[in-house]
Amino acid sequence: MRSGGRRRRCGRHLPAEGKAQKVVRDHKKIVDAIARGDAVRAQDGLREHLSGTLSQVDEICRRYPDFVAMP
Asked: Is it the case that residue 36 has pLDDT exceeding 80?
């Protein structure tokens, strides 16, 4: 996937107050754990970060039906 597509996708999920800051904090936590060689904390951070997005998949699909291709 091209980065432009990724930016469009992420932008659809950032309108909530403070969401962008939380995404940056989550990413920093993951990167810091990787830099320390702490795979367990990196995996935990990634799971926590993705769980926020996954919990909103239905809403994203409802709000942006032309953006999400459903089988």
From this structure: yes
